[in-house]
Amino acid sequence: MFKLQNICVQHLGKKLLNDISLEVTAGNVLAVIGPNGSGKSTLLKTLSADLHPTSGLIQLDGKPLHQYSKKQLAQVRAVLPQSASLHFPFSVREIVEMGRVPHSGRSLNAEDKRIVAEAMAIVQIEHLKHRSITYLSGGERQRVQLARVLCQVLNSSNEKRYLLLDEPTSALDLSHQHQVLQIVRLLAEKYNVGVMIILHDLNLAALYADHIAVLKDGGISHYGAPDEILQATNIRDVFDISVDVAPHPSHDCQLIISNRNTATTSKHIQQSY
Amino acid sequence: MQAESRLTFRFYLIVCTLLLVVVSALSLYIGAVKIAPQDVLSALTNYLHITDHEPGRYQSILLDIRLPRVILAIIVGAALAALAVSGAAMQGLFRNPLADPGLVGISSGAALAAVIVIVLVPSIATIPKSLNIYLIPLAAFIGSLLVTLLVHQLSQVHGKTEVSTLLLAGIAINAIAGAGTGLLTYMADDTQLRILTFWSMGSLGSANWAQLFFAAPIIITALIGIYFYAKALNAIALGEAEAGHLGYNLESIKRRLIVLVALAVGTSVALSGTIGFIGLVIPHLLRLFIGPNHSKLLPLSAILGASLLLLSDLIARTLVAPAELPIGIITTIIGGPFFLWLLLRFKRQGSII
């Protein structure tokens, strides 16, 4: 379990995260939502040990995060940052295999290879495996990177693993967005992985998350089960947008419908109407 | 390129090694003095105590002049392939295909430091000439280390490499090193002047066993050292944050790689002066055939770099025989246009980085 207690992060005198307490537990999916600049990526970087909190405590499975070596961390958690550019034409398979680096010795053993194949099968990119990453579309690249981090957290012994995803659906079409979230559920339910996922689409969060944390101005404004959190007033408070919330016609969750005009749209736009 | 169309690593390893053997044999055989192939063979077998013929007329030309030179070319080639390997490593480290020890000024930094030693040290103190063998490589190493650190510091913006800064820093450093060398040329006496000309254009002409015994272990150690970071370099290609998430301690890997690159480049510059473009051409050429995986790229860069340098040296000393062209001119004639072609290719793909 990732356990954050009273985390504050300050950078150049500006408070990026303010008194955050949060848990990411194995087998559960926590969606983090919030407006741009609310600190979602900072939170993810803090959990992935790229940023050190100015104050507060982060524990991973009972041990302070900073006591882990980079390699130990890499063995229990994987991170998918927002896409970085790749200038070298690695093949898709080579990229996915890199996910096994923290677990393997100098070369991949049979178990590693099985997991690589399994990861590519889950993400359905086997047909791309010999292609060069530089020739793929943005969405395909994003899925290849997903397969890589999948490869890093999959294990046959079902030990606790954690996966931190920063907007993994940003470049994907509708069906692949849902594919990614289905994979996330599969990881949580079948492989005992604890997932923290940053999402922009509230409906994806409603459909797939166990818990939702809403960030605003570096602090957690709401936290709880999707049904409790995704209320029209809450969403209006945080996102400055008017929405209707209705029961989903075919699933046991809420459906968020955003309305056309909003009460607080800037004056410039209102004037131009 | 489809990975399927890449032939196997082993195939290319064999091809590159064969190329090296053929070019080495040619380099022993061809030269200002014509020596028959059977004389080459008997001199070699004599040397290795396989046979015990009467030493032929050409034995000393072969053993004392051409053989050290071939071995030097292979080692410097491997070192310039260390340039190539360093080039490959730096391209990996800077996450950019245009990084090259020559372009970003590391070679000229090493050369300047060496030139400072050549011109200034004899006038400060009388140091035995035998010590110079060690002093020059040491200076070159320090020179290349300083430049690498400087360039790395300058080009990093928020953990990412700023390519334009990297290349502009290279231009500035090359210019400063050029001015420094020019100033020292002005101060140098006749003997020093001759040595300086050699530095500025690169040559394997002064190859001798004493230098080799000193330089070879350093270069080979540095190359093997760099090879240990092949997998880390692959991960760095994903992005620095990503490599960290895979368990690599980036800061310490970078530091060590920079020292190893500086060691390889510095020593090779101390041996042969500045020889341009090998570090850029070789890794690129290889990436087209075998892909960017550093576990394959680094060893093949070493072998192919050695072959290409040996070939350039062969051309340099036979084209205008019995005189010699500086080898740097040959590599630049090959490498310069190649670099332009590379820019064109990137332009067509829509990105310089």
UniProtKB/TrEMBL annotation, chain A:
Q: Which CDD domains does the record match to this protein?
A: ABC_Iron-Siderophores_B12_Hemin (cd03214)
Q: Which PROSITE patterns match?
A: ABC_TRANSPORTER_1, ABC_TRANSPORTER_2
Q: Which UniProt keywords apply?
A: ATP-binding, Nucleotide-binding, Translocase, Transport
Q: ABC transporter domain: from which residue to which, for each copy?
A: 2-242
Query: Is ATP-binding given among the entry's keywords?
Result: yes
Name one molecular function that GO assigns to this entry. Answer: ATP hydrolysis activity
Q: Which domain of life is it from?
A: Bacteria
Q: Which family does it belong to?
A: Belongs to the ABC transporter superfamily.
Any idea what job this protein has? Answer: Part of the ABC transporter complex HmuTUV involved in hemin import. Responsible for energy coupling to the transport system.
Protein name per Swiss-Prot or TrEMBL: Heme ABC transporter ATP-binding protein
From TrEMBL, chain B:
- For this chain's UniProt record, which GO biological process terms are given? siderophore-iron import into cell
Topology in the membrane? Multi-pass membrane protein
Where is it chiefly localized?
membrane
* GO cellular component terms, A-Z: plasma membrane
GO molecular function annotation? transmembrane transporter activity
- Which family, according to the similarity comment? Belongs to the binding-protein-dependent transport system permease family. FecCD subfamily.
Protein name as annotated: Iron ABC transporter
